[in-house]
Amino acid sequence: MNRIYRVFIPYEQSIEQLLEIGHYEITSPYMSEIHFQRTDCGRDRMLEIELVHFGRNISTNEALDGIDQQGLRPVNVMELLGFGALYPDAQREFPVVALGEIFPYPHGARNAVALGTFGELWLAVDWYDACRFAAIRK
């Protein structure tokens, strides 16, 4: 069963502001407004984020298919950062991944953002079994 968290997403704030609120110890230099498009700007709202756990190593495409089969959509970067700011202890238990925005890394790789267990943000393409995937009901 997926864990569910009520999260207030402050869309009026920038990614950089949410990074400060979340007190991340390590962040990628690519975590900025320049690299991520803001699709829900200007309208703060409350969401219920579910953390989906597949219990095995999984590729991004497999995780996206599994999330979709559960009637969910993956969260975007703003939603993930809002989750991390409100529930910092969750990411210390397991990495929390947002597949709603795939980041085109400068060298051609496509990556997603994850909140790591040590307060860092990182980018990856494949995920190990401890990862949880943040998603919202469609």
Offer a few descriptive terms.
138 residues, alpha+beta, Mannose-Binding Protein A, Chain A, two-stranded antiparallel sheet, 9 strands, 23% helix
Explain the layout of strands and helices.
Blueprint: E1 3-9, H1 15-22, E2 45-52, E3 58-59, H2 60-69, E4 72-74, H3 77-86, H4 90-93, E5 96-104, E6 110-115, E7 121-124, E8 126-127, E9 132-137
Parallel strand pairs: 5-9
Antiparallel strand pairs: 1-2, 2-9, 3-8, 4-9, 5-6, 6-7
Helix pairs in contact: 1-3
Task: Walk me through what this model shows.
With 138 residues, the protein is α+β, with helices and mostly antiparallel strands. It has one domain (3-137): Mannose-Binding Protein A, Chain A, CATH 3.10.100. The chain has four helices and nine strands; from the N terminus they run βαββαβααβββββ. The protein has helices at 15-22, 60-69, 77-86, 90-93, and strands spanning 3-9, 45-52, 58-59, 72-74, 96-104, 110-115, 121-124, 126-127, 132-137. Strands 1, 2, 4, 5, 6, 7 and 9 form a seven-stranded mixed β-sheet that branches. Strands 3-8 form a two-stranded antiparallel sheet. The longest helix has 10 residues, at 60-69.
